[in-house]
Every structure is written in structure tokens, then in C-alpha cells.
Design brief:
Length: about 475
């Protein structure tokens, strides 16, 4: 009874509460959680930077490949938000629970498969990427350790998706904070071998990350089985069924292709940056980490947008769903404009926090100069992704995302950096141009409004295990 009452209270707030207030009510825990999640890489970067540019560069060249594998899980998890949130918004709690069980089972199975593939293939892929020889062995050791923990990470994705879809953004945040604090404590212990532990260096950072992330997965799995905000999983919910495969494939495949394409594209980008040596790689890694900090705010508003758009479309409150999209776009563009200005004003200091190498700081300043004017446009692109995920209409955003990365960013980078001889500066310019063009196209799609219709069937679909 209590769980049902909590579910109805969340649903009522999202469907009827003041839009701006509700966006921030949903967003602030997600913002906090994303800042905390960023701390994994920031803490790793801080300690590994003390071991030298080679150790600092190992996670930088590894994460694009890791994200390529993560993107498969995140794409289908995002599709899970649209399905679960629309059932939840329509007041169909049993189909929402069934969908949550299907999500957990499918993502965990995918995680086990990708863990094996990633561990086996990562050395060859690192070599194909052209990772500098002084970084290569450290990068392979780091990435293989991370891949061993992929199933746990994917289970965490599933829990956070379910929690967010029903409107609970707080529980995942507290779990993420606990996980991040654990990582902060474990990082120096495993990297430097304190308290009698072996000195593992770069591998120690990966071990600390895997152990700390398991907290979210284990606790989240327990909550879903016990009963959580109107969602309670049974054994039968975990048996993957045809209706789910068809639904999640239709909605999730464009997002998965988009995200995996992005991850592969960023792997190619990292390979391109690697052509200009460890200074360019270190500068790229430092600036991306800095931008990630203000992007945490973008992630928070965007996830809140997905939740509100999904539930309001599920309840057929289409005018409110459109209002949420427009207000979120304005808020996100404002936040990134202010954040970008702050980074530009303190550009030398923010890079020096991670690494004090003079050449790296100078190159990092060039990247910041090129990127910051494009951040408001990136905000529009990002909110469009949130609207696509919440509404379930994902094809346009997937195509736009691929265009942004492969044509406007990678293609233009090759032209400017290599063909026209601008070097790393050409890459930094292409990154900025890609944001501006994709942001403009995103705004056009939002205003057209073709995304304002449900993707789930109401009344209840005839699904095995459902009770009318």
C-alpha cells in the first residue's frame, strides 16, 4: 500500500506540479549524482597525474572504447525510460513492473557478453587506435580491469533507469555518493599501495572504480526485488519475452546505434588527437574532464526532461510535454553559457589542477578558446536527446547525432587538422562547429513537434504475466 501511495504521489507531482519547480526537483539529485560520477575520472586523473603524463593518459585513451561498450547498455536503458515512464504516467503500474524486469534481465545478459568481448579485444583495439607506445601497456591493463566490472555497471544502469522513470531521482543519488566516496578512499590505497596493499598504479585506479561501482548495482537489485516506488520484480518478470524484445528493439536500436556510433567516433577522435602526441592527448583529456563538470548540470536537466516528457506523453498531456521541452532548453542553454564563461575566464588554472605540464596547459587553453562559444548550442542538442528518449521517438536524434560526430566533427577534423595543416587547432575548431550546427537543427526538430505521441499501448497490452 505504501509503495502504491508513493508511486501515485510521484506521478501526480510530475503530471501536475509547476514545470520549472518540478524540473529542478527532479534534476538536482541527478546533477549531484553526475558530479559524483564525474569524480571517478577526476579522482583517477588527480592521483594518476602524480605518476606522470603516461599514467594520466591511460584512462583518457581507454574511456572512448569503454564508452563504446557502455553505449550498448545505455541505449537500451534509455529506451526503458520511455516505456516504463509512459506506463507509469498512464497509471499502469503492473506493466511498468514487468517492463522493469525485462530491462534488468536483458541488460545484465548484455553486460556479461560485452565483458568477455571487451577483455579479449581491447589490446588489439588499443593498437589499432595508434595509442602512443609509452601509454599503451598502461592503457591495456587499465581497460581490461574495467571490462571485468561491466556486468555490475550494467545492473546499476538498469536500477537507475527504473528509479528515474518513476520519478525517484534521490535514491540513485545517495547510492552514487556512497559509491564515489568509496572510490575516493580506495584510489590512493590501490594506486600507491598504502596500508600494506600492493602498489598497482594505473590498475589500482580501475580496481577502485569497479569495487565502488558495485555498491549501486547490489543495492539497486535488492530494492527492485523487495519493492520500490510501485515497482516490484518477480521471477517471471526476469524471463525475457518477445513483446519486450520487439518494443525495446524498435525504440532502443536507434539510440544504441547513435550512442555506439558516438563512442566509436570518440575512439576515432582520440586516435586522431593521438597523432599529435602525448601533449595533445593530455590537454584533450584535461579539458574534456573540465567540461564534464558543467555537463553534469546538463545531464540533470536532461534526465528530468526525459522523465517529465515520458510521463506526460503517457498521460496524453501533450501541451505540458512541449512546455517542459522548451523550458528545459532555455534553462540548459543558460547554465552552459554561464559555465562556459567561467571555464574560459579560469582556463589556465582549471587545466593546471590536473596537470602542471606547461605545454599541456598551453594546448588546453587553445581547446577551451575554441569550445566555449559552442556550449549553448550543445545544450539544445542535449535536451533534444532527452526529449527523444522520453517520448520514444528516437530516429531523428540518432541520425543527427551521427551527423554531428562523424561528418561535422571527425570529417571536418581531418580536413582542418591534416589536409589544411592546422594540427590540433583544426580538431578543436571542428568540435565547436559540430556543436553549433547540431544545436540549430535540434531546435528545429523540437519546434516541429512530431514527437508528441505515445509509443506504448493503453489499455494494457496482452502480455504474459499481466492481470487485467
Amino acid at each position: 500500500m505504501k509503495s502504491s501511495e508513493e508511486a501515485n504521489a510521484l506521478r501526480t507531482k510530475i503530471l501536475n506540479g509547476p514545470v520549472v519547480k518540478t524540473i529542478f526537483w527532479l534534476a538536482w539529485p541527478i546533477i549531484l549524482a553526475n558530479l559524483v560520477n564525474i569524480s571517478y575520472n577526476l579522482v583517477d586523473a588527480y592521483w594518476l597525474g602524480k605518476l606522470g603524463r603516461e599514467a594520466f593518459g591511460a584512462p583518457t585513451v581507454s574511456w572512448p572504447l569503454i564508452m563504446l561498450f557502455y553505449s550498448l547498455g545505455m541505449g537500451y536503458a534509455t529506451a526503458g525510460i520511455s516505456i516504463i515512464s509512459q506506463y507509469f504516467g498512464a497509471g499502469e503500474f503492473r506493466p511498468a513492473s514487468k517492463s522493469a524486469g525485462q530491462l534488468v534481465a536483458s541488460i545484465l545478459s548484455l553486460g556479461l557478453t560485452l565483458s568477455i568481448l571487451g577483455y579479449a579485444l581491447s589490446p588489439n583495439v588499443m593498437e589499432l587506435m595508434g595509442v602512443p607506445k609509452d601509454i599503451y601497456p598502461l592503457a591495456v591493463s587499465y581497460i581490461r580491469t574495467i571490462f571485468l566490472g561491466v556486468p555490475l555497471v550494467f545492473l546499476g544502469f538498469a536500477f537507475m533507469t527504473v528509479a528515474n522513470a518513476v520519478g525517484d531521482t534521490r535514491t540513485p543519488t545517495w547510492l552514487s555518493i556512497t559509491s564515489a566516496l568509496t572510490n575516493i578512499v580506495l584510489d590512493p590505497l590501490f594506486i600507491f599501495g598504502y596500508l600494506g596493499l600492493p602498489k598497482l598504479g594505473v590498475v589500482g585506479a580501475a580496481v577502485a572504480t569497479v569495487i565502488s561501482r558495485s555498491i549501486v548495482s547490489i543495492a539497486g537489485g535488492y530494492f527492485l526485488i523487495r519493492g520500490f516506488r510501485g515497482i516490484k520484480l518477480s521471477v517471471s518478470d526476469l524471463k525475457i519475452e518477445g513483446w519486450w524484445v520487439r518494443k525495446i528493439f524498435k525504440i532502443g536500436t536507434p539510440l544504441t546505434l547513435q550512442q555506439s556510433s558516438n563512442a566509436l567516433g570518440f575512439t576515432v577522435m582520440t586516435s586522431l588527437v593521438s597523432r599529435f602526441g602525448s601533449v595533445a592527448i593530455a590537454a584533450y583529456g584535461a579539458v574534456i574532464r573540465v567540461i564534464d563538470i558543467i555537463q553534469a548540470f546538463t545531464w540533470g536537466i536532461s534526465r528530468a526532461t526525459s522523465i517529465m516528457v515520458g510521463q506526460n506523453i503517457g498521460a496524453e498531456n501533450y501541451d505540458r510535454a512541449k512546455k517542459v521541452a522548451y523550458i528545459s532548453s532555455a534553462i540548459t542553454a543558460t547554465i552552459l553559457s554561464i559555465g562556459g564563461l567561467g571555464i574560459w575566464l579560469a582556463r589556465e588554472w582549471v587545466i593546471s589542477v590536473f596537470i602542471s605540464d606547461v605545454a599541456v596547459v598551453a594546448e588546453g587553453e587553445k581547446l577551451i578558446n575554441a569550445m566555449t562559444p559552442s556550449l549553448p548550442f550543445f545544450a539544445l542538442f542535449f535536451v533534444t536527446g532527452a526529449v527523444a528518449g522520453g517520448s520514444g521517438h528516437t530516429s531523428f536524434f540518432a541520425l543527427l547525432s551521427i551527423l554531428r560526430l562523424w561528418v561535422l566533427r571527425i570529417g571536418l577534423s581531418y580536413v582542418l587538422a591534416l589536409n589544411l595543416g592546422l594540427g590540433a587547432w583544426g580538431i578543436w575548431l571542428a568540435m565547436s562547429i559540430s556543436n553549433i550546427v547540431s544545436g540549430t537543427l535540434s531546435l528545429m526538430w523540437l519546434t516541429k513537434g512530431g514527437w508528441l505521441k505515445r509509443v506504448v499501448e493503453i489499455p494494457k497490452p496482452k502480455i504474459a504475466g499481466f492481470k487485467s
